[in-house]
Amino acid sequence: MSARHFLSLMDCTPQELDALIRRGIELKELRERGVLFEPLKNRILGMIFEKASTRTRLSFEAGMIQLGGQAIFLSPRDSQLGRGEPLGDTAIVMSRMLDAVMIRTFSHSTLTEFAAHSQVPVINGLSDDLHPCQVLADMQTFLEHRGSITGKTMAWIGDGNNMCNTYIEAAIQFDFHLHIACPTGYGPKASLLAQAGNRVKIFTDPNAAVAGAHLISTDVWTSMGQEDEVQARLALFRPYQVNQALLDRAEKDVLFMHCLPAHRGEEISEDLLDDPRSVAWDQAENRLHAQKALLEFLVKPALGS
Ligand code: CP
Ligand code: NVA
Q1: ipTM of model over 0.90
Q2: Ligand 1: residues whose CB is within 6 Å?
Q3: pTM (predicted TM-score)
Q4: Are the CB atoms for 133 and 140 separated by under 8 Å?
């Protein structure tokens, strides 16, 4: 039987996603109570990072250790991947030694190609197209603070990047309305928009997009891999900064999320992360809990454990 992968939120049913975020909350409570819970004893997660990371590496590595297992970090700089060993060959070898593999990469096709050759679950730790682990944690965070997001309205402001694409998938799977305000030419993937139908609306004016919003989120204007475009993007995205005045135009109980890292003074005002409406630190912490739920769901425990 081929392994179950998590390359996108669409790899799970809405029921499975709901169960994962509720399980994330339970695992968080277990940890807060200091309960030892080690279902993945002797299990090993391989992690390939082609891009930098703080939260993703920490949360997967700490999560595996807390679940009783271990994680091994690889990068193209110090593995044969960087010297041209074919990805499919690497996938076969890694899946013979490990119990799951997490990959942070540029092209999304790296994930699909690796998964096609892997006998063990492959998890998307961010690609140029999608960041499903982050949005899983974000959905857990919304549930904790406000209850179900179904039927609510979210506004995405800024770049139509991997986070924005993933929120379109979340709008489909969790059934909420999504308003997206991006500069012309910097919108999300057209194929995802077509799939989402009329639950997603595109705006160019951020003020119009946040009207009625229960959740507002943004991200850096220049994602990893786009460093050559920094100057052009700084000028173009300036009207898309999220600040207190923009939050004031949304619903009274609006929450603000940012996947981090943030560039204060660019996509957010200097002090927005300190605003009581911001839940960015909870989001970051929930990477740990939501991914532990995901690992528990995907990785087979060792026999006898
Ligand atoms: N949000 C997120 O994925 O952070 P890192 O890039 O630090 O992993
Ligand atoms: N959009 C950002 C997210 C970082 C977590 C990037 O891809 O660099």
Answers
A1: yes
A2: 53-56, 126, 134, 259-260
A3: 0.98
A4: no
